[in-house]
Amino acid sequence: MTAGDETPTSVGIVGVGVVGRRCARLLDGRHRLMLHDRRDEAAQAAAGVLRDARVVADVADLASCATVVLAHPGEHVDVADQLLRLGVHVVSLAGSVGRVQALLDLDDVARQHGTGIVVGAAMSPGLSGLLARWLASELATCDEIHVATHGTAGPSCAREHHRALGSSATGWHDGTWIERRGGSGRELCWFPEPVGAYDCYRADLAEPTTLHRALPNVTRISARVSATRRDRFTSWLPMLTPPHREGGVGALRVEARGARADGGRATLIAGIAERVGTASGATAAAFADAAARGRLPRGAAVAGDAALPTVELLQSVAEGGVRMQRFTGVPESLARQEDRDAPPADRPLPKGSPAPRATRRP
């Protein structure tokens, strides 16, 4: 987030799980925070470690906020509708196709009340859309975007991963929506190190919906998640073991294919290797900060929309501790020499260059 602009505004956060807490830490000090969670003791504990935060008992108490982040599990539509009608901007981390579409249907409500809602502001969807727009902007024409993710954040995210694998998957293929069985379509995807390669499969993911809205001229859009054999074979059953409190290092890979200005074909790949909760929290905080500063459009928007300040948002995500990487195809021996000549990896990203180049073996 860009340093020191206006007088701090109030930002609300609904849900203080893994992602909500990470988002709150990044916004703390830049904005006054108001936290709400159905578990009051969790909200009180989260507020206790922040500098400028207080707990509210009801969503209606967030009416004085400039922006509210919805990071709680379950449905977001009713809460988002209530907040938009109160004149509050909304940033939702909803990830399933049905919930994303229902939130996008609030576009008219948001416009009527002069507010905006960002739908899908986590790692996936969210950061995936920002990277897709950034890569597509480097091509004269972009006709394919393929997204793959690995890992989960907290328990609700793990349950969503389980549900998505057991549900039908949609994709955009040559101008037509297609539907395939979740857990099918195995593809070996290479993620940034230290994650490496994982088999990934189709699932009920929102990227085809959000990316088609943001980049309507792209003719093929797909999304996959990594999964083990056990994940796939038990996806139609209730979860056999309780979900973990937080997963390990996850990853995101975004691949854009198209043509360069000279007519040659090109494939551009970018991604991250980071805890999913950290990446999602940084993405949500970037959108919330931008909305509070009046940098987002009215109505419903998804990550990657042309109306959004993509480079600024990516810069903000990077400042939140997420190191973005780009596959360059340079042999490892040359990569080591480039690494010796390159500036330190933790140096702040320069303006207009949100994703530093990094190398890995294909």
Description:
The structure is a single chain. This protein has 362 residues and is of the alpha/beta class. The protein contains twelve helices and 16 strands. The two termini are 33 Å apart. The strands form two sheets. Strands 7, 8, 9, 10, 11, 12, 13, 14 and 16 form a nine-stranded mixed sheet that branches. Strands 3-2-1-4-5-6-15 form a seven-stranded parallel sheet, sandwiched between helices. It is globular, with a radius of gyration of 20 Å. Helix 6 (127-136) crosses helix 11 and helix 10 (276-292) packs across helix 11 (310-319). It folds into two domains: 10-123 and 280-317, NAD(P)-binding Rossmann-like Domain (Rossmann fold); 127-277, 2-Layer Sandwich (Dihydrodipicolinate Reductase, domain 2), CATH 3.30.360.10. A hairpin with a 5-residue loop joins strand 13 (249-259) and strand 14 (265-275). Helix content is 31%, strand content 26%.
